[in-house]
Design a protein that fits this description.
The chain has about 550 residues and is α+β, with helices and mostly antiparallel strands. The chain is about 25% helix and about 35% strand. The protein has 6 helices and 32 strands. Strands 13-12-11-15-20-17-18 form a 7-stranded mixed sheet, with no helix packed on it. A 6-stranded mixed sheet has the order 1-14-22-21-16-19, with no helix packed on it.
């Protein structure tokens, strides 16, 4: 099913609005003309009557019917009556013009506001594309970047500014792109006026560089993490991880994407022109008050289920539109929300192909109509727009709610096909695991916990030997009466894992690659396996950020 484009709809409504405006002003001008003509006609009639009466008095005086004294009195009475009538008519005319002026001012005000609301609600908002952060080191083997966490303001709603946070800008941050084997040096400035951290979500690096709550950056201070990229091509991201403040700081805008490329991603014949056919989509939901301010004040329901909003943003814009060519497009999708899980699909139920999960490419593309993404999860998908005619629009939906559109405009310069093979993933042998650890996600609201314990910075919950393999078994007990029947999202720092099973069954095809974040439904048990290759202290936690801030987090140390 093809859908009318946003441009066509706006043009149609705009044309109707213009015609109505023309008719309105034509009617107003006509009524003014009629009123003036009527006033002049009435004035002429009254003047004629006055002249006729005066003539009658003169004739009566000439015939001797009235004497001179009576003649003068009748003439004076007629003059006074005419003066009163002229004074009354003058007041009436002034009142008429005052009323007409007020009506015109009111009409202009109403039309202006209607037009303003119409334009605000129906304007085409181009999808913002985050900038690529410049590498300031000319050495191809070394990358230097500078990131500043700062305050800002942004008009999410036309004419209404909201206070925000951002990296190197007012909201969200630039895309950091690196290559496997590069040595990366990043200088992080904190200009927020409050402490923060920057966690490199999905990167396999030492705990000292991970950006968890131990790496707090004081206001006005700098942090200098450095690490070598040694993992496959993937779409990762970065965001704050300050103890008990992660939810608020991410909500206000601190988040950005982190791309890793390698020889495989360079060689694959898939779209890779950033901002043209390789597009980042950071999906978030937000609440705005009547003044257009982002509202973050979690109540009990938010603590129970995670903070959710009634507006869905993509790259910081409400209802944006992306112009696409008639060809294959690569979309890198991040669920950057605090607590909402998305069920994404195209408005015409077209198939698309998932080619990557959190930690990199899947072995084979997975054909889907719907994609579920929990907070913190990523997916790369290929969408084929070649079957659409120029001018058609397809919407991206979450369940039944549309929140952005793709406008087909022009033919792709290069033709791509869906690769049959993307990469080869070496499966971690279950027999190589030296230990199975079990984690029970429990409680509700402010009482959420893991294995009965809430986060304590001074406690190491799990100690792990370097270069060993383990199986982690995560169970969501929230299907019980006291659990609240809430889904949880499990994330582990510093590792990428492979999913072994969901409730004893094989995982879906699109969860058979590398993962660092996974949704655990109420009553469900998920088993994952990973090898711990970096020393340090790392976090494991629920990635529903209100749960994390409430204490649903623990620490493991690799040594």
């Amino acid at each position: 099913m093809k859908i009318m484009s946003g441009y066509g709809m706006m043009g149609g409504f705009g044309g109707v609005f213009s015609i109505l405006s023309f008719i309105f002003w034509a009617v107003v001008i006509y009524l003014i003309f009629v009123a003036i003509k009527k006033l002049n006609s009435t004035k002429d009639k009254k003047a004629k009557i006055e002249d006729d009466n005066l003539q009658i008095i003169k004739e009566r005086y000439a015939r001797g019917e009235i004497n001179e004294e009576q003649y003068k009195k009748l003439k004076e009475d007629l003059g006074r009556k005419g003066e009163k009538q002229r004074e009354a008519r003058k007041k009436w005319i002034i009142g008429f013009w005052v009323l007409l002026t007020l009506l015109l001012i009111s009409a202009v005000y109403i039309l202006y506001n209607f037009n303003h609301r119409f334009q605000s609600q129906n304007r085409v908002v181009p999808l913002p594309i985050p900038k690529l952060l410049k590498d300031t080191n000319p050495d191809p083997k070394i990358a230097n970047f500078s990131v500043t966490a700062q305050q800002g303001t942004k008009d999410f709603i036309v004419g209404k500014k909201s206070a925000t946070y951002g990296y190197n800008g007012d909201y969200l941050g630039p895309v950091i792109r690196v290559h496997r084997g590069e040595k990366v040096n990043i200088t992080v400035h904190n200009d927020l006026g409050e402490p923060t951290t920057v966690h490199w979500h999905g990167l396999e690096i030492p705990g000292s560089e991970d950006g968890g709550p131990h790496n707090e950056i004081a206001p006005g201070e700098k942090w200098h993490p450095h690490f070598t990229i040694n993992q496959p091509a993937a779409t990762l991201w970065y965001h704050p991880h300050l103890l008990q403040k992660t939810g608020e700081q991410v909500y206000r805008g601190l988040a950005g994407l982190f791309y890793v490329e390698d020889k495989k991603s360079d060689q694959l014949d898939i779209p890779k022109e950033y901002g043209k056919n390789d597009i980042p989509l950071i999906i978030q939901d937000r609440r705005f008050n009547k003044n257009g301010q982002m509202d973050y004040n979690p109540g009990m329901q938010d603590l129970m289920n995670g903070f959710t909003g009634d507006k869905i943003l993509v790259n910081g814009a409400i209802q944006p539109q992306l112009k696409v060519t008639r060809g294959l497009m690569r979309l890198r999708v991040l669920n950057g929300s605090n607590g909402k899980t998305y069920n994404l699909h195209l408005s015409d139920s077209q198939y698309f192909y998932q080619i990557a999960s959190d930690g990199g490419f899947l072995e084979h593309p997975v054909k889907l109509r719907k994609l579920r993404l929990a907070p913190g999860e990523r997916a790369e998908i290929l969408v084929n727009f070649s079957e659409y005619n120029k001018g058609h629009s397809v919407r991206l939906n979450n369940n039944q709610h549309s929140f952005m559109s793709f406008y087909v405009d022009g033919k792709a310069k290069k033709k791509y096909s869906i690769p049959a093979q993307l990469t080869t993933i070496k499966k971690i042998s279950v027999s190589s695991a030296i230990k199975t650890r079990r984690f029970a996600f429990q409680g509700m609201g402010p009482m959420v916990n893991i294995n009965g314990k809430q986060m304590d910075m001074n406690r190491i919950d799990e100690k792990i030997k370097l270069n060993t393999t383990e199986i982690w078994e995560i169970t969501n007990t929230s299907s019980t009466m006291m659990g609240g029947n809430v889904a949880h999202t499990f994330h582990a720092h510093g590792v990428q894992f492979q999913v072994l099973s969901r409730n004893g069954e094989n995982p879906p095809e699109n969860e058979r690659g590398w993962k660092d974040t996974i949704l655990i439904n109420p009553g469900e048990t998920v088993k994952v396996i990973t090898k711990f290759q970096y020393k340090g202290i790392f976090m494991y936690h629920c990635h529903i950020l209100e749960h994390e801030d409430a204490g649903m987090m623990g620490q493991f140390q690799v040594q």
